[in-house]
Amino acid sequence: MSNGHLPSQSTKSVNINVWSDCSGINSEMFALQALSDSIREIIGANVQCNLYYTCDSDTKSIVFARQNHAPKHVGIDMKQRNFNTGEVWCTLCQRNLPLPKRGIDLYVGTYPCSPWSRRGTRAGWDHPSVDTFRIGVETIAYIQPAVWIIELGELPEKEAIDEVIAAIRGACSKAG
Questions:
Q1: How much of the chain, in percent, has pLDDT values that exceed 90?
Q2: pTM strictly above 0.85
Q3: Residue 155: beta bridge partners?
Q4: Position 118 confidence tier, pLDDT thresholds 50, 70, 90
Q5: Distance separating the N- and C-terminal Cα atoms of the chain
Q6: Looking at 30-44, 73-87, 133-147, which range is the least confident one?
Q7: How far apart are the C-alpha atoms of 2 and 6, rounded to whole Å?
Q8: Which long-range contacts (CB under 8 A, 24 or more apart) does 56-59 make?
Q9: How far is residue 115's CA from residue 121's CA, in Å, rounded to a whole number?
Q10: What SS3 state is found at 37?
């Protein structure tokens, strides 16, 4: 609650601020539904979603997001985040906007699974698209959401989940 998340007592409605780094903008909607159900059960409030950001350069995904989820801001390249200046480029507003430092309730990231997928090269940490994962972890550390959910796909035997958790902890520790 001190970071601007859920109220301490029952209200008629709660606004949930969602940051999505998902292709297709679907996974966060499932995560939001589960979170909404829990909030409704715990404090008896209906949930209104404010989808602030999503990243996907696929035109069909952007159109789908605008038609079905009405995000407030859309980014098409995670590399357009500047954690030093605290800004992110919004393609809807056509300008840099401040990255929030508080008040994001749910972060969902479904990064390309190419580094670990059976369909890919399984190059792990050496795969070029692992940068997306690293930017996602930096985003988690920067915006400090109340809840975060990430999907990496299937990890091969040589890549332990402990390595992934260590990378997340390292980035979060670095950010304080």
A1: 10
A2: no
A3: none
A4: low
A5: 18
A6: 30-44
A7: 9
A8: 56/22, 56/23, 56/24, 56/25, 58/23, 58/24
A9: 7
A10: helix
